[in-house]
Amino acid sequence: MRLVVLGSRPLLALILTLTFTCLSHLCHGAAPFPQDLEPISTVGSEHTYLYPSFQGNMSDNDTARLGMDFQRMLRINHMLYIAARDHVFAINLSASAERLIPQQDECYNYIKVLVPRNDETLFACGTNAFNPTCRNYKNGFGEPVGGKLPLLGGTGMHACESTKIFTPQALTKTAGLHTDTHLAARYCREGPVGILVFRVTLCVIRTGLAPPGPVVAHRHFHCPMSSLEQDGEEVVGQARCPFESRQSNVGLFAGGDFYSATMTDFLASDAVIYRSLGESSPVLRTVKYDSKWLREPHFLHAIEYGNYVYFFLSEIAVEYTTLGKVVFSRVARVCKNDNGGSPRVLERYWTSFLKARLNCSVPGDSFFYFDVLQSLTNVMQINHRPAVLGVFTTQANSITGSAVCAFYMDDIEKVFNGKFKEQRNSESAWTPVPDEMVPKPRPGSCAGDGPAAGYKSSTNFPDETLTFIKSYPLMDEAVPSVNNRPCFTRTTSRFKLTQIAVDTAAGPYKNYTVLFLGSENGRVLKILASTHPNSTYSTQVLEDIDVYDPSKCNVQGEDRRILGVELDKDHHALFVAFSSCVIRVPLSRCSDYGVCKKSCLSSRDPYCIWLSAGNCATVAPGLKSGFEQYVESGYLQYPDSCHDVLATTRKQNPAVDSAYGQCTK
Q1: Cα 312 to Cα 407: distance, rounded to the nearest angstrom
Q2: How far apart are the C-alpha atoms of 201 and 56, rounded to whole Å?
Q3: How many CB atoms sit inside 10 A of residue 583's CB?
């Protein structure tokens, strides 16, 4: 046999040709591999540069020099909280107001935990120069967290009355300003501002009841500051907050207890799922240094649902060690009433910890997997069933590809009630545990419920049950995605999708689902998702939006990766976060279609309607009639097109590009 050495370019071309040939024939005798969908319209930077942006406290030298260093966003009612380096920012979505909360630490402090503890308290943790620390903060305005926030202050930038409360209208009247005027107010408070106190700025950047629209870019505000007092003592952040900003973490309060998943040391050698801060519940954690429980995990999301808290993560798969380091996505589960094991087995450890693989793949004779979870939603209704949706990507050393998969919560429960997986020895394959080897009560059950209904506490479980769950926390079957296929795939772009936000009630009748997908290259894909059984339409890319603005976000060079997206449907906005800025993007651009009926209706945008007055407009809340809209098929009655602002960028997409376009059975 003769060995033929090919040049690098011909070899690469051959590999790519063979790869995509294989992909297109994955489903022999079935539907072809889904092609990438083309967007109906493309929104370029010449439009998006006008969108309002937030870059942090630019008067702070470190922020001006290094950028905001975004960490996470949290939306509670009409308040949007943004955690960054040394600062937490709050934006009043109802009044388009901003409250700036910089922390007065000398060392860099990345705010990695920001969650509501109750109706009046926020719980925040920071890396604190590799010494994680947490604090509770009461709402300094006497209102529930995220509740209606009055504007506090005096006339313009000068007066300060600490006891007087101004509504937006009263403040406008006092200052002699109109409701559409940019203005600023402050709330003054006696007392020093020390290292343990956050400082607050309240900047009103927009008022009035009109629908939000483009705001003049590059507007700067200089606002006075006041203090927001800490509630109680500082709390040690270890096992609740990572030691440095690159370590992943999630956290939430459920039933008064704080559930966290992170690293407990600087070297990230001890990953943990941890419960603490409860008044009556014992502190519990996962077994230390046991790869069967956690192996180099990257934590993405946590959800309270029913009797459990679920953790969504990706990790190195222990069941595929012969293939090297292969990343799998998982869902893990613990019981909220878990009290740990007996003094003999699993004392101070979870007795209910189980985990299972999430299967996001294109079906066929050879499945094509999207193994790496990037982002996940909270529980929402898909086809009247509770479900979560997530963005998944291919392995780091594989062909670049992304997909959106949905998972029903009851399908997750079915897997957790199924067979366990075991490896008899280090040389054998992983196989299901025979039913006769599973002790009773069933391992992973919650005390007082189901198979363990006869046990008041997990501390009373038999040693056999505790020993089993310590050795076999992995379930045999993977959780299937809705309809056993992705809702949306993208495999020809070299940029992966990274974030997801979902509106399951779009349109005047609230019967359409729209996905907003952030990517590595600073673009947001707006997707009309087919989520109904026997749907008469398929999934369609409505818009490809270039959100990244170098003039606002290039503080430390170009970093186009979208790190977070947060939907504010009440104010028709999507907040898109980059490392150094957050940009507010309207959910639609209906007014750009103007008086061109064809362009308006051909957009298939659930947020856009054609009014009898002869113009394209955004759907108003409660509007049920007196308009035209063609979401499912587009508007094809008139062959002529208008010379509207988007005509040169719109691309029509053939129906054949919609294989695997449905989410549901």
Answers
A1: 12
A2: 12
A3: 24
pTM for the structure as a whole: 0.81
pLDDT value for 138: 81
Phi and psi angles of residue 515, each rounded to the nearest 5 degrees, phi first = -100, 140
User: 37: how many CB neighbours lie within 10 A of its CB?
Assistant: 22
Region 315-339 average pLDDT: 93
Rounded Cα–Cα distance for residues 567 and 576 (Å): 9
Enumerate the H helices of 485-604 as residue ranges: 550-553, 597-602
Across residues 351-372, what is the average pLDDT?
Answer: 94
The CA distance from 27 to 34, in Å, is 10
- Class of domain 591-650 (CATH, top level): alpha beta
Dist. CA 411–CA 358, nearest whole Å: 11
Please, what sign has the CA dihedral across residues 631, 634, 635, 640? positive
User: Residue 641: what pLDDT?
Assistant: 62
Q: What is the pLDDT of residue 339?
A: 98
16: enclosing H helix or E strand: helix 8-24
Q: Is the pLDDT of residue 222 over 80?
A: no
Closest CA to 67 of 81, 49, 87, 50: 87
| Omega prior to 102 cis, within 30 of 0 | no
Contacts of 562 (CB under 8 A, 6+ apart): 498, 499, 518, 519, 520, 522, 524, 547, 576, 577, 578
Q: How do the domains of the chain map onto residue ranges? A: 70-242, 248-488, 591-650
pLDDT digits (tens, 9 = 90+) for 398-448: 899 999 999 999 999 999 999 999 999 888 899 999 999 999 999 999 999
Q: CA-based angle 167:169:171, to the nearest 5?
A: 65
User: How far apart are the C-alpha atoms of 228 and 199, rounded to whole Å?
Assistant: 6
- Going by their DSSP bridges, the two strands 385-393 and 372-376 should be labelled as antiparallel
Q: Is 195 exposed, middle or buried (0-12, 13-18, 19+ CB in 10 A)?
A: exposed
In the chain, the amino acid numbered 553 is C
Query: Three-class SS string for 28-40?
Result: CCCCCCCCCCCCC
Structure tokens at 414: 């079915």
Long-range contact pairs involving 392-398 (C-beta distance under 8 Å, separation at least 24): 392/329, 392/358, 392/360, 392/486, 393/496, 393/497, 394/369, 394/370, 394/496, 395/326, 395/327, 395/371, 396/327, 396/372
Domain 248-488 bears CATH identifier 2.130.10.10: yes
CA 1 remoteness from chain centre: 54
CA triple 514-519-522, angle to 5 deg: 110
Sequence-separated (6 or more) residues with CB below 8 Å from residue 81: 73, 74, 75, 88, 89, 90, 91, 114, 122
- Cα gap 271→294, rounded to integer Å: 7
- Pinpoint the alpha helices (H) of 398-474: 409-416, 463-471
Q: Determine the Cα–Cα distance for residues 526 and 601; give it in Å rounded to an integer.
A: 16
Q: Are strands 564-568 and 540-546 parallel, antiparallel or unpaired?
A: unpaired
C-alpha distance from residue 570 to each of 65, 78, 94, 488, 573 (Å): 35, 8, 9, 26, 8
Length of the chain: 665
Least confident span in 232-246, 361-375, 431-445, 639-653: 639-653
Residue type, 143: E
Q: What is the spatial distance between Cα 312 and Cα 46, in angstroms, rounded to a whole number?
A: 38
User: What is the per-residue DSSP string for 37-55?
Assistant: PPPSEEE-HHHHTTS-EE-
Q: What is the rounded distance in angstroms from the CA atom of residue 149 to the CA atom of residue 139?
A: 10
